[in-house]
Amino acid sequence: MNTTTLRRCSMPALILAAGLVACSGQTTSGVGYAPQTTPAQAGYSQPTARAALGSLNFGVQPDTKCPKSDLACVTVSPPSGADIGLCVENAQIVTSCSGSPPSYTWSSAFYTRAGKVFHKLNGAFDPNPGDPTLDTITEATQLKSSLGKYKYYQVVKACASSGCLSADIGVATE
Fold this sequence. Notes:
The protein has 174 residues and is of the alpha+beta class. Helices cover 19% and strands 33% of the residues.
């Protein structure tokens, strides 16, 4: 790839990133969720986004219905689902950080609040492995609205050669 082609590709990408950053932080219609721009949303690889945007803030706004035992809560609405940025900092999974080595491999499982495995929700991580990563939660089959209650939770695991960490994400459905 020559310098002209690279310059032509990266300039529109930087303009798009600036536009997404300007619009980030607005609360969506889902209860308890305020997304921030992420590398995956902007269509960039992690190093490019970090260089263009500096420290990434994936913060999720908690609400009073989010159980205190959960790291954060999201409301999933079909068909797009819900996104939450995750990363590891100071040996904990968090929703606001700049990301750092090592790269973690992410996985998850869903449960009802009664502790039964729940197969009607899916979690996908991009990039995986990576740190930070974007966790996208979608419905495998359309679910009835939980009326703002976080009836389900996702147990997220981040693993590296040094071991694994876990955190719970509360999930409501629309």
